[in-house]
Amino acid sequence: MIKVHHRAMNRTIQVDRIINHLEGSQPGPTVVFFAGMHGNESSGVFALHDIMFALKKQLVPIKGNIFALSGNLPALAKGKRYCTEDLNRLWDKEQIELLNNGALHHEHVERREQQDIYQTLQQIVTKQNGPFYFMDLHTTSSESIPFVVVNDSLLNRKFAKNFPVPMILGIEEYLDGPILSYINELGYVAFGFEAGQHDDLASYENQMAFIYLCLVHTESVEKSQVNYYHYQEQLAKTSINAQDIYEIKYRFKLNEKDQFKMLPGFVNFQKVKKGQEMAIRNGEKIIASHTGRVFLPLYQQQGKEGFFEIRSIHPFFLRLSAVLRKTKFAHILPFLPGIQWQSENHEALVVNLKIARFLTKPFLHLLGYRSKKIDKTHLVIKNREAASRNEEYTTEWNI
Ligand SMILES: [Zn+2]
Fold this sequence. Notes:
By secondary structure, the protein is of the alpha+beta class. Helix content is 27%, strand content 29%. An eleven-stranded mixed sheet has the order 3-5-4-6-9-7-8-10-16-15-12, sandwiched between helices. It has a four-stranded antiparallel sheet with strand order 17-18-20-19. Strand 1 and strand 2 form a beta hairpin. 42% of the residues are buried. The structure holds zinc ion. Zinc ion is lined by residues 38, 41, 138.
């Protein structure tokens, strides 16, 4: 047990890895919430703690299982983003293999936390029944309206569209090792919710609204059992662009020893122009590289990304990409010149950009691929749809 404090609410609660677990009397989905993967983001921990308590006390009928898990316990106790390493950047393939093989790291606080969360997840996935839903609750250092951050699979998009907040697609291309990318690669619906600024009271209210809406949309709780329309309205009113879907165009990445200072006054989603002054790094001015909106400007000491730039995606392209992905057009890719499988397990393709010049990033996105540059002329691309367990999600939202 650790003590977690919320400054704005002036409240302290005690939590463990499993904040609470509710098991319904009827079969249904398994919904897993994480909060506090970053230790200075406690509003999700409070919201989960309070909702689970309320559901239990009010004897609300539940289908399936609801798990509320806390993330970085030692960092939560200190109110810091992390102690040694960012727990939400450790979930890459090599590290998962080490965890799988029992070759465990104990040298850092966060590696121990990761091992414990990994084992908790394994137990949930092996003991409980699907469909599984994983939601990761966060807050931001800058002032922000609430939004969802979604790895771009059609399954995720469909579920995330239920929430009246803007959606950001494709963050997995830019972040190394967030826990949700790992869970997505297992084929489950998994995405993040950002409720607002860390210490804003409204962030707690927004977390509450998102959690309740999730429980209804996953069909673990009946709409009539919670104040559904109130929560829907609460999130809808925070945003004038509730139905907008954005993609990330650019990330300003920070190196370990960089001295970075965002210029004051940027709020999340604020419009910026190409060339506009954004920040100072090591005494040098940093300017916006695209016209669009600034996303996640960094106003705290710890963090590896200074800011992102995003742009809205026209609905036509969203529909086009859904059609292209469903027709499995991408299956011809390995037969084209300049493209070959990276290894025998056919998980990823290597693209030689000198030969396959037609494979631009926007085109790859339409086909459902995400890409990482390995050198100047080669990309490794991975199909986002391949792992999706579409057949497990047969509820009404999955058209
Ligand atoms: Zn966070």
